[in-house]
Each structure stands twice: as structure tokens, then as C-alpha cells.
Amino acid sequence: MQQLVPPPGVKGRDKMVYYEVVQFLMDCCDITYSQAVQALRSNDWDLWQAEASIRNNKM
User: Fold this and answer.
1) What's the whole-model pTM score?
2) Distance CA 32, CA 50 (A)
3) Residues 30-57 pLDDT 10s
4) What is the mean pLDDT of the chain?
5) Spatial distance between the Cα atoms of 31 and 12, rounded to a whole number of angstroms
């Protein structure tokens, strides 16, 4: 299993949320950690936009 590492400056509860968001994308969209992070970055860290973007690109 790949180590999940949040961006610098993410601490405490935000770190847990970051892990959960990345893990959600990895599980629901069957993608890698890097792909999940890239999708989030490309969509201004909006989970739902990132998920929609991933699903649209897979079709």
C-alpha cells in the first residue's frame, strides 16, 4: 500500500480529511494515489468535481 502524504501545511483534523478524500477517490474510481491527487489539484481540491472529472475521462 502506498503511503498517503498530505501537502505541506495540512495538519490535525485537516490531515485526516485529506486522507479520507484521497482514499475515497482511489476506492470509488479505481485509480492510484497520484491520479487522485492530480484530479483534486486540477479541480481546486473539490472532491465532487474531481470525481466527475475522473469518471468522464474513463468513459
Assistant:
1) 0.71
2) 14
3) 999 999 999 999 998 889 999 999 999 8
4) 83
5) 26
Task: State how far Cα 35 lies from the chain centre.
Answer: 8
CA distance 44 to 50: 9
Does residue 39 or residue 6 have the better pLDDT?
Answer: 39
Cβ-defined contacts of 41-48 (< 8 Å, 24+): 47/21
CB-count burial class (<10 Å; 0-12, 13-18, 19+) for 37: buried
Specify whether the CB–CB gap between 42 and 16 falls below 8 A: no
Whose cell is 495538519? That residue is: 11
